[in-house]
Design brief:
single chain, 296 residues, alpha/beta, five-stranded parallel β-sheet, two-stranded antiparallel sheet, 7 helices, 9 strands, signal, SGNH/GDSL hydrolase family protein
Length: 296
């Protein structure tokens, strides 16, 4: 999803780190020969600790051990391109992302007619859900800044409307992949449960319970929207939401798969991007992708 804060600081910690995976290459690994990973910061598994610029500029904060790289290594694909970039929307499939730290070319530029495997995780920034998380932060446990800003007196929820509007853009993105790579198997990932549906953990994460519950249900709506897109377009759906309960940002180090407000992680130890997957979350995403591909 979108990351707006502390991007200039990553220049000081940029590093190209070797990839790692716990998965062995399957016997039929040669089935896929050209894999392209597309998506936003949850696909890049954005990090300030193990950034790589092997595929994208530093402003993409792409992890050297994100799920795309783990899947590529597990499959043993001879050609892999990782276009994922923090802050990406569906627009950035065909338009570049530019900041003072660099430019990531349009993500579709990595697709070719011979691409035979594509993973895609996108939609959170189109709905502006990622940016909204920081709006919920408050010093008052009774305050509800997100509910006040996004839900009207008559119950209309602007974020729910945004999520519905993003659906057609994700469908169009899949159509664009098929136009450029007609023989590719396409896997669409959702976003796993980063916020518990029953509430938060104020003051550890300074978001009130009502706003945390609202955020949790918006993530559920995002999951449901992407599941509909997969069904509508006939692509494979990688359901990372299922099985992720109990691993939200309020859980202790070693249990949580997504970090909270503090920009520090225990997996790996070091600077983290708030409200994004840590290495345990990236590993879980990789496992679910490989399961969908029939690789255990």
């Amino acid at each position: 999803m979108k990351i707006r804060h502390a991007l200039l600081a990553v220049a000081a910690v940029t590093a190209v780190l070797p990839g790692a995976t716990a998965h062995a290459a399957p016997q039929d690994a040669a089935r896929y020969t050209e894999y392209v990973a597309l998506g936003d910061s949850w696909a890049a598994d954005a990090t300030f600790t193990q950034i790589t610029t092997a595929f994208t500029p530093v402003n993409c904060v792409q992890s050297a051990r994100n799920y795309g790289k783990q899947v590529a290594q597990a499959l043993g694909v001879p050609v892999f391109r990782d276009a994922t970039c923090g802050g990406a929307t569906t627009r950035n499939m065909t338009a570049p992302q530019t900041s003072v730290l660099g430019t990531n070319a349009p993500q579709f530029d990595r697709l070719t007619p011979t691409t035979d495997l594509v993973t895609l995780e996108i939609g959170g920034n189109d709905a502006e859900l990622a940016a909204t998380v920081m709006e919920c932060v408050t010093a008052d446990p009774a305050a509800t800044p997100c509910l006040d800003a996004h839900v009207s007196a008559d119950g209309a929820d602007r974020m729910s409307q945004n999520l519905l509007a993003a659906e057609s853009r994700v469908i169009a993105t899949i159509d664009g992949i098929r136009e450029r790579s007609p023989h590719a198997r396409i896997l669409l990932l959702d976003y796993f449960q980063g916020v518990d549906l029953d509430g938060g953990c104020f003051p550890e994460i300074p978001i009130s319970d009502p706003d945390a519950i609202w955020l949790g249900h918006k993530l559920l709506e995002l999951h449901e929207m992407l599941a509909r897109v997969a069904d509508t377009t006939g692509v494979d759906f990688v359901n990372t939401y299922e099985g992720s309960a109990g691993h939200d940002a309020c859980r202790p180090v070693g249990t949580r798969w997504v970090e909270g407000l503090m920009p520090f992680s225990g997996n790996p130890v070091g600077l983290a991007v708030p409200f994004h997957p840590n290495q345990l979350g990236a590993d879980y995403q990789a496992v679910r992708v490989l399961e969908t591909l029939g690789v255990n």
